[in-house]
Amino acid sequence: MIRSVILFAHVVGMLVLFGGLGLEWLTLNTLKRSRSREQALPWVNVFSALPRVIGIAVGLIVLSGIYLAARTHAYDAGWVRVSFGAMVLMGIIGGPVVRSRIRAIRHAADCDAPIAMLHILASDRLLRASLFIRVAIGLAIVYMMIGKPNPGDSLLLTGVALTVALGVDAVSAPRRAQLSAVGVQR
Q: What are the extents of the domains in the chain?
């Protein structure tokens, strides 16, 4: 019975994580398209709360994952070790790396900055790259949980996910810059 509850918590953590990442994507895009401060402020509040929600989800995933790995004696499995390392990488990329940018958006909203400032801050390339990387690595981890590849393949899969995320960001950045230059907000 306890294993089922822990496994359920693990799955719920993953659902909350991906829901939070999807909401982060929606929030950034909505902030960039907001026509007024009044329209943007609720989304700034959502964006400011997301790191806590995603952090709780990651904590739930890691703690339940530790229990499940211990229960099945899977600590020595390469995919488990790579998954834990990838979760730490996601935490670093989603936490300390972008924290100052999240605070800048919150500060701009609190200080009655013009809507153009919120557009600029929400268009920060590092925020977008961080989001792409976390989604790609999260999907790689889900695959590892299902496929249970060997350590080399697990590392390769994580590297490919990281490369694809950076490639998608690099390909979409010039298009976003062109659209912004002509005044089109996506």
A: 2-170
